[in-house]
UniProtKB/TrEMBL annotation:
<keyword id="KW-0805">Transcription regulation</keyword>
<dbReference type="InterPro" id="IPR019888">
    <property type="entry name" value="Tscrpt_reg_AsnC-like"/>
</dbReference>
<keyword id="KW-0804">Transcription</keyword>
<dbReference type="GO" id="GO:0043200">
    <property type="term" value="P:response to amino acid"/>
</dbReference>
<dbReference type="Pfam" id="PF01037">
    <property type="entry name" value="AsnC_trans_reg"/>
</dbReference>
<feature type="domain" description="HTH asnC-type">
    <location>
        <begin position="2"/>
        <end position="63"/>
    </location>
</feature>
<dbReference type="InterPro" id="IPR011008">
    <property type="entry name" value="Dimeric_a/b-barrel"/>
</dbReference>
<protein>
    <submittedName>
        <fullName>Lrp/AsnC family transcriptional regulator, leucine-responsive regulatory protein</fullName>
    </submittedName>
</protein>
<dbReference type="InterPro" id="IPR000485">
    <property type="entry name" value="AsnC-type_HTH_dom"/>
</dbReference>
<dbReference type="InterPro" id="IPR019885">
    <property type="entry name" value="Tscrpt_reg_HTH_AsnC-type_CS"/>
</dbReference>
<dbReference type="InterPro" id="IPR019887">
    <property type="entry name" value="Tscrpt_reg_AsnC/Lrp_C"/>
</dbReference>
<dbReference type="Pfam" id="PF13412">
    <property type="entry name" value="HTH_24"/>
</dbReference>
<dbReference type="GO" id="GO:0043565">
    <property type="term" value="F:sequence-specific DNA binding"/>
</dbReference>
<dbReference type="GO" id="GO:0006355">
    <property type="term" value="P:regulation of DNA-templated transcription"/>
</dbReference>
<dbReference type="InterPro" id="IPR036390">
    <property type="entry name" value="WH_DNA-bd_sf"/>
</dbReference>
<dbReference type="InterPro" id="IPR036388">
    <property type="entry name" value="WH-like_DNA-bd_sf"/>
</dbReference>
<dbReference type="GO" id="GO:0005829">
    <property type="term" value="C:cytosol"/>
</dbReference>
Amino acid sequence: MLDSFEKLILKVLQRDGRASTQALSDAVGLSPSPCWRRVKRLEEEGYITRYAAILDGKKLGLNAFAHVQVSLIDHQTSSLGIFLDFIEKNDQVLECTSITGDFDYILKVAARDPEALEQFIMHNLLRLGIVRSTTTVFILRQMKVSSALPIDM
């Protein structure tokens, strides 16, 4: 179980992964040395898996984002391997989630524009030969984007 200091550390680091040990210790009310030890323990125990920079997609020329629902032809080990290998190696796929319902997976995909997204679907995804069908839902505007998890649930 996490104590209140560790929960605060996680909250602060989710907002600012580059917070110095001093800034982090000030924010949570611990001296720097015990604060640093707790961060190291949280990393070692897998609570903190990595640190990342959050980039602005529009500044990078990415103006089309979509959720692509994917239904596979079958669920054989070889088909799943091909699909998961494709997902892992393709930088345009931001997220891949196994879902319930009429589709097997939902992908969050980034592209320069709608035509580039079509290119991704038609010439990359469907050419795998294991996809039965897709449905694409364009993201018009994102009102909230967060990777921060709720700590106190």
